[in-house]
Design goal:
Elements lengths: L1 H5 L1 H9 L4 H12 L3 H9 L7 H26 L1 H19 L24 E7 L4 E5 L24 E8 L3 E6 L2 E7 L2
Length: 189
Amino acid sequence: MKKALDALDEVIEAIRSSADPKEAKSRLMADFSLTEVQAQAILDMRLQRLTGLEREKIQSEYQELLKNISQYKAILASPAMVLQIIKDEMKQIRESFGDERRTEILHEAGQIDVEDLIAEEDMVVTISHEGYIKRNPISLYRAQRRGGKGLTGARPKEEDFVEMLFVASIARLLAFLHQQGPRVLEKGS
């Protein structure tokens, strides 16, 4: 913007003598060695920014930018200043977000059993007349009103039918007794 303000009359003449905005942008870029972004910013600028007060504002912004650039160059040139800035910012972060630890660190984790990772939930166990056993989550079943058709939780064979249905916890032991063999203990999972 400062380049445009320094040669304001020439910039206005270049814009006025152009046939369209595209030509005006290319002329500004060629005549005043501006980048495409700078030329577009000049074209987008409203005329009210050309008043004396706005010109002073642009000049003061330019001076502020020059001051910041020299300060940033000094910081980059001095490793001690970089480290000091890092220290100051880390102190500020610690003051803003530093609080007591909310978790407890145990040095001895102990044994983690796979069964401890299984969520405790209810399940429906069905046993068919032919001896097939099936486990389904209880969420598969729902209460129904009179005359409801319901969901089919177990699909036995054509001649087979569900003989027993009960609800159990997935983490409890189930004991199966069979007339042909010994007692078997199985987890619900």
